[in-house]
Design goal:
The protein is an alpha/beta fold. The protein has 16 helices and 38 strands. Residues 28-270 form the Calcineurin-like phosphoesterase domain.
Length: 640
């Protein structure tokens, strides 16, 4: 029987290849997950409770439904898979994977039979040895074209790819008449070249990177020459209006490359097609195309599934994409606040052991917490959630530099509100009740596996650091009386560094000195006012040590004066470990903010601030709830 079936299939394939009667048209569906960030389950480890707003167990149901609707499907993951929750930390640091053991995210994804996966920037957070171990046990091939081994000879021409750059996979598909064909699908993986800066401690001397677009232009013709009928660019890269060589968000430019048929985007934690990108040149957010080519970005944490539907027509011996559109499907109804699908129980079973181990880990006690901590108002006033991180970093760096040449320099600390809503959604805030302070709460305060580092800066550089940070805010017109949005939503809150140990004001009536790409665009503007140390105006030439993390110290976020060359401390310890040690020593933590910064009052102006509805019970003086929106956020007005 098997032999008979094989012969029948071969005959059908031959018939198709010779041009059987009827149009040779294939409908092909491509599915994308991206930025899952170790969210196998709909479980908030920081709040220690289930949630239906995210989780791969829900996305898995969408994948099965999408496959039932279309006979020909391909499934890809676009990276940032293994880091992002305590579960990711647990299998990397607490109870590391055994050699050959599959990562729990891969164990879950193996049930869905992915065709390939790409590497994201956060795949490198735990170091190359762990990443290579994860890839070796992966249930699908992994691609990354613009990462190269550092051979130290200074000649990029002979550099070798660190990972498989691309694949050409032979896939059996069926046309609209049910006739089978083989389709050669090329898939190339791309990652922001900035990983060598962001994870310098893990990659320096081991890996180099190339520009995303340059890399695609190199390999796409090679893929076509090797027989690729269509090419899918799986790019862990966002969508931007313009392009410059070396930039991290280059998905738009990829659509301009001949030979690329589909772009799977990611990294930015947004949805495409979606209104965020309505003003991108060449974007059609109705059909999900940019410059006529299908593009999809499936949000983050498994909250959406990306779907691209292609129509392929046979032209001679080649297949040509004659039509395509893209869409995202959510797992959660934001307005009704309910799930649109039920979770796939097989996913929970696949990660059961890792999940239970993670729960035991995050529930471990660190100290007692005297009062609650939250980050609902961290963008408008000095906040205890940021203050605690800053204080722990200062304690760590002072001890580490006690016997060095930097021991007599003042130690400041830069920390940012990582969880402050924004693209993370209305529930993405730190909210820790008084009582037992556990590991999960420390991870809630500091969500990234960064390590402690410190840099030496001058007073002048400190001023520019804060000016760049003040790009978090829109410019407020003092003459207007209607509410004006305070926060620039396009500015990531993890780049809003608050520097502790000095005092200053932020005058948002001034334009931002730097634009989103850290270019000096308003040289005469200064939002940072009354910058003082020890009650005196800062001397531009005075030297300081600033405690920060490896991402910022190495140039992450494009801050002026921070390029990795002025690092004076490179600690192997994670910032979270520094926090745990600090809290353990205190035994009882009483979080308070010292009020070292504030917004300069603008009499008569009314600010519009977006936060969680839960922020109302912690509202500062002058703040009033305006309304709760369909997306779950609440709008507040603030008057000086």
């Amino acid at each position: 029987m098997k032999k008979h079936n094989s012969l029948a299939l071969m005959a059908a394939l031959l018939l198709g290849g010779l041009g059987a009667a009827g149009a040779q048209t294939v409908n092909l569906r491509i599915l994308e997950t991206t930025d899952l960030h170790a969210n196998a389950l709909g479980y908030d480890y920081y709040q220690d409770k289930p949630t239906g707003e995210f989780g791969f167990e829900y996305t898995a149901t969408l994948i099965k439904q999408a496959r039932e609707e279309m006979r020909n499907t391909l499934l890809y993951d676009n990276g940032d898979l293994i880091q992002g929750t305590p579960l990711g930390d647990y299998v990397a640091k607490v109870k590391p994977l055994e050699p050959g053991q599959m990562h729990p995210m891969h164990a879950a994804m193996a049930l869905l039979k992915y065709d390939a996966g790409n590497l994201g920037n956060h795949e490198f957070n735990y170091g190359l040895p762990f990443l290579k171990q994860v890839i070796a046990a992966a249930p699908m091939p992994i691609v990354s074209a613009n990462t190269y081994l550092e051979d130290g000879d200074g000649n990029p021409a002979n550099d070798k790819n660190a990972f498989t750059p691309y694949l050409i996979q032979r896939k059996l598909v069926y046309d609209t008449y049910g006739r089978p064909y083989y389709l050669n699908v090329g898939v190339i993986g791309l990652v922001p070249p900035q990983i060598v800066d962001w994870d310098k401690v893990n990659l320096d001397g081991k890996l180099t990177t190339r520009d995303i677009v340059e890399t695609a232009r190199k390999f796409v013709p090679e893929m076509k020459a090797r027989g690729a009928d269509i090419i899918v660019a799986v790019a862990h890269s966002g969508i931007a209006a313009d392009y410059q060589p070396g930039q991290e968000n280059a998905a738009t430019e990829l659509t301009k490359i001949d030979g690329i048929d589909v772009v799977l985007s990611g990294h930015s934690h947004q949805e495409f097609p979606g209104p965020v990108y309505k003003d991108i040149p060449g974007a059609d957010i109705t059909n999900g195309t940019i410059n006529g080519k299908p593009v999809v970005m499936a949000s983050f944490w498994g909250s959406d599934l990306g779907i691209v539907d292609l129509t392929l027509a046979r032209q001679g011996n080649n297949w040509k994409v004659t039509g395509g559109k893209a869409a995202v499907r959510p797992i959660w109804d934001k307005a009704a606040k309910k799930n649109l699908v039920t979770p796939d129980p097989a996913i929970a079973e696949a990660v059961k052991a890792a999940h239970e181990g993670t729960l035991a880990y995050v529930r471990g006690k660190v100290a007692e917490l005297a009062t609650p901590i939250n980050s609902y108002w961290a963008l408008v006033q000095d906040d205890p959630s940021v203050q605690l991180v800053a204080s722990a970093q200062i304690a760590y760096v002072k001890a580490a530099l006690a016997d060095t040449q930097y021991k007599d320099l003042p130690v400041l600390s830069a920390a940012a509100p990582f969880k402050a809503g924004g693209r993370g959604g209305a529930s993405y805030y730190t909210d820790i009740p008084a009582g037992t302070l556990a590991i999960k709460n420390v991870a809630d305060l500091y969500v990234y596996p960064n390590t402690v580092q410190a840099v030496e800066v001058t007073g002048a550089q400190l001023q520019e650091w804060l000016e760049r940070s003040a790009g978090q805010f829109n410019q407020i017109d003092p003459k207007k009386t209607e509410p004006q949005p305070l926060v620039n939503d396009a500015f990531p809150t993890y780049n809003f560094d608050v520097i502790d140990g000095v005092t200053y004001e932020i005058d948002v009536s001034q334009p931002s000195r730097y634009d989103m790409d850290a270019k000096l665009v308003n040289p005469d503007a200064h939002r940072i006012k009354n910058l003082m140390f020890g009650g005196k105006a800062i001397d531009p030439a005075q030297k300081f040590v600033v405690a920060t993390n490896n991402y910022r110290a190495s140039g992450g976020g494009k801050f002026p004066g921070l390029d990795g060359k002025n690092i004076v401390l490179e600690s192997p310890d994670e910032t979270r470990q520094a926090l745990i040690a600090y809290f353990t020593e205190q035994k009882t933590v009483n979080p308070t903010a010292d009020g070292n910064w504030k917004l300069t009052p603008i009499p008569g102006a009314t600010l519009l601030y977006v936060s969680s509805p839960n922020a109302q019970k912690f509202a500062p003086a002058g703040a009033t709830l305006l309304k709760t929106r369909d997306d779950g956020f609440a709008e507040y007005t603030i008057k000086f």
